[in-house]
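Suppose you are handed a protein chain with no further information: no name, no annotation, nothing but its sequence. What can you learn? This example shows the usual starting point.
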Amino acid sequence: MAHKITEKCTACGTCVPECPVEAINVGDPIYTIDAEKCIDCGACVSVCPTEAIVAE
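A reasonable first move is to predict its three-dimensional structure. Written in structure tokens, the prediction is:
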């Protein structure tokens, strides 16, 4: 199961370096997660300051 980034995202960039498979894409206004690449490790979830990343 992949994760997704909700509208709570402030595009702070904290999650990007945490993703071991580079599944997070910089977006405008919010970032997105490529579900095909996501390995469901949850590394991004634990660092998100706005709790914008959730299991899909």
